Amino acid sequence: MKKNLVLGVMALLCLQVFAQGPAVVRFGVEATYAPFESKLPDGQLVGFEIDLGKAICQKMGAKCEWVENDFDSIIPALLAKKFDAILSGMNINETRKKQINFTEKIHSIPGALVVKADSNLTAAAESLRGKTVGVQQGTTYEAYGRKYWSPKGVNLVTYKSVDLAQADLVVGRLDGFADNASVMQESFLSKPAGKPFKMVLPYLRDQEIFGVGGGIGVRKEDTDLLARLNKAIAEIRKDGTYDQIARKYFSFDPYGD
User: Which domains does the chain have, with CATH numbers?
Assistant: First the structure.
């Protein structure tokens, strides 16, 4: 009788733990993408999405862990179960949704092209014909370049990280670099190395490529985790936590329309 009672209590505790979800959520991240995520000299990860992840985990009653991974292989790494979810400036689009599921959007910030300040270049393919433009490989900006620029005679060069592309832009190996507008402003244009450059308007737009904005990616089978993430996102949006975090990094509402 006592044995059955103990087994029953243990089973109940297990069910409660299962219902609450995992005690740890491991987020895959590429930490070269300020202000979304970057690394301090002491190795600490900081940024808008890092703070969002911590707030989301708190609402879920879980602890956050961060697993660094190159962006171009971050979806295969998720599918290989190296971490539980992707929180790394990833836009939600139909191509990615064929492989993984996404939460509701957590931000919506347009892309843009950066060129020399004294340049007359625009983001139009005709203006960039014969020029060399850099993008980070595996990103929606690479997809945009291959759709609109490469077929019109623009030399598209891909990079493992934003930092490498920006370095080549500074020394003149690139005529332009395309990426998230807030990333370009925070990590480049606001720095001394970025002073001779400017952001070209209008912003880069394509609903098929850029989707509705950025979200957290999860494996298709992890429906419980997806539901719990969406619930936590809704809660931090409702109670003002999201806005409080956003004001630390942006002078505008990154959630968009």
Answer: 25-108+212-249 (3.40.190.10), 111-210 (3.40.190.10)
Is 238 exposed, middle or buried (CB count within 10 Å of its CB: 0-12, 13-18, 19+)?
Answer: exposed
Instruction: Give the model's pLDDT for residue 6.
Output: 44
pTM, to two decimals = 0.83
Q: Tokens standing for 251?
A: 């002078």
Q: What is the DSSP string of the chain?
A: -HHHHHHHHHHHHHHHHHHH--SEEEEEE-SEETTTEEE-TTS-EESHHHHHHHHHHHHHT-EEEEEE--GGGHHHHHHTTSSSEE-SSPBP-HHHHTT-EE-S-SB---EEEEEETT----SSHHHHTT-EEEEETTSHHHHHHHHHTGGGT-EEEEESSHHHHHHHHHTTS-SEEEEEHHHHIIIIITSGGGTTEEEEEEEE--HHHHTT-B--EE-TT-HHHHHHHHHHHHHHHHSSHHHHHHHHH-SS-TT--
**pLDDT tens-digit series, residues 181-191:** 999 998 899 99
Q: In the chain, what is the greatest distance between 2 CA atoms, to the nearest angstrom?
A: 85
Decide if 66 contacts 50 (C-beta within 8 A): yes
pLDDT at 9 over 70: no
What are 137-185's pLDDT values in tens digits? 999 999 999 999 999 999 999 999 999 999 999 999 999 999 999 999 9
